[in-house]
Amino acid sequence: MHIKGLAGGVLGLFLISCGEQSTTVTQETIFSGDSVTIKSDSPILSKIKLATIAEEPFSAEFRTVGTVQAETGKFAEVFVPYDGRVTSAAVRLGDKVRAGQALFSMSSSDFAEISKAYFQAVRANDLAQAEYKRKQTLFNHGIVAQRELDEAKVEAENAQHEKASAEATLRIYNVNPSNLKMGQHMTVSSPISGEVVASNITPGQLVKADDDAIVTVADLSSVWVTAQIKEHYLGSVTMGGKAEVFMDADPNQIIQGNVFNIGNMVDEETRSVQVILSCNNENRALKHGQFVSVHFIAEPKPAIVIPSTAVFQGEQHSYVFVATNKTNTYVRRKVEVGSSNDDNNRVSIISGLKNGEKIIAEGGLYLND
Predict the structure, then answer these.
(1) pLDDT of the residue at 22
(2) What angle do CA 297, 302, 303 make, to 5 degrees?
(3) Each residue of 19-53: pLDDT tens digit?
C-alpha cells in the first residue's frame, strides 16, 4: 500500500502480521485492515472535521441541455401538392391564421385533371342513382326482372364509391368538394391554427411538388423542451415535476417547465433518456430549435445527506470514514451514493450509513493509505 505523507514526510514504516490481518504503522497513523487510528500526537487530528449523520429534507438537483421544439400537432410545413404556378398569396410572414384558412392559390394542370375527374364522378353517380331508382319503380310494377334491378344497384354502388374516392383525393389537400367549381385554381389552406413563421410565397413563381416547404405555420404559445438526462438521474425526475429553463440570450430569465413525458428508452451510446418539458411561451421568448439549459429540481424527500468531501471513490465502490468507539479510530465503509445538489457540495446516501453515526466530513484524504 502507498502511504500519502504529510509535511515532513513519512519517517518510518513497518509491517506487523497478526493472523490474516496486516497492520501498517506510520509516524502519523496505524492502518489495520479497513480501520485506521490516528496517533494522539499527529498533526492530522487538526485537519479532521466530524459530522453526525441525520436525515433531512433533500432536493436532488442537476443541469443538462435541451432543445426547444413545437408541440406535436402545432407545427406544420406546407408543401405544394402539384407542379404549377403560384397565382396569389393570402398571408404574409407573421400573420395569425386559423385551421382551414387559405394560404395561397396556384394553377396546376394536375389539379385541373383531378377536379375534372371529381365532377365526372359526381355526374356519373347522379345518373347511376337516378337509374337505380327508376329500375326500382319498374321492378315494383313488374316491368323489369330482378336481374336488371340488381345490375342497376351494383352500378349505383360503384358510382357512389368512385365519387367518395374523388372527394377523398380533394380532401387530402384541404379542398372542400362542395365549394369546388370547374376551372378554379387550387387554394392551399393551413392545416393548423397558429402563426406564419416562414413564408416563400411569390405570386407568379413556378413551384414543384418536390420543392421545400413554401409556408410554415406554428403555434408556439406553449412549447416542448426536449432534454437528455443520464439514467442515474431518473429517480429524481417525476411526471409533472418542475424544472427551470435558461437561455444564453437572457441568463437571468427563468422559464418554468413541467415534466410532460419521460422516455422509456435509454440511448445505448450516451446512456441517457429523453425527458420532455412543457413550457408556457406566450411571450415567444423560446424559439423553435433553440438550445437551452435545463435545471431539474426534485421534490424534497427525507434522506441522509453528507458533504461531498466525505466521500471517496475506490476501485470498485465509494466509501466514507466512520468513527468507532475507540478514540481517533475510524473504519472505511462502503456506501451507495445517490444524487447531489446543484453545487455538488452535498450528496445523498442511499445505503451504508444510518442516523446517529459520525463520519469524517473533512480531512479524510489524510487517511487514505
Answers:
(1) 63
(2) 90
(3) 445 677 677 888 888 899 999 889 999 999 999 99
Whether the Cβ atoms of residue 50 and residue 358 lie closer than 8 Å to each other: yes
CA distance 75 to 193: 9
How far is residue 58's CA from residue 70's CA, in Å, rounded to a whole number? 34
In angstroms, how far is CA 55 from the centroid of its own chain? 33
Query: Rounded to whole angstroms, how far apart are CA atoms 240 and 261?
Result: 8
Which of 227, 182, 192 has its CA nearest to residue 77? 192
- Give yes or no for a contact between 292 and 286, defined as CB atoms under 8 angstroms apart: yes
List Cα–Cα distances, 92 to 51, 77, 80, 97, 313, in angstroms.
66, 15, 17, 10, 61
Look up the pTM and report it.
0.64
HSE-CB at 270 with a 13 A cutoff on CA atoms is 10
Q: Please, which residues have CB within 8 angstroms of residue 37's CB and are 6 or more apart in sequence?
A: 29, 30, 326, 328, 329, 330
Helix residue ranges, H only, the chain: 109-140, 146-171
Q: Which residue has the cell 327508376?
A: 134
Name the phi and psi angles at 343, rounded to 5: -90, -5
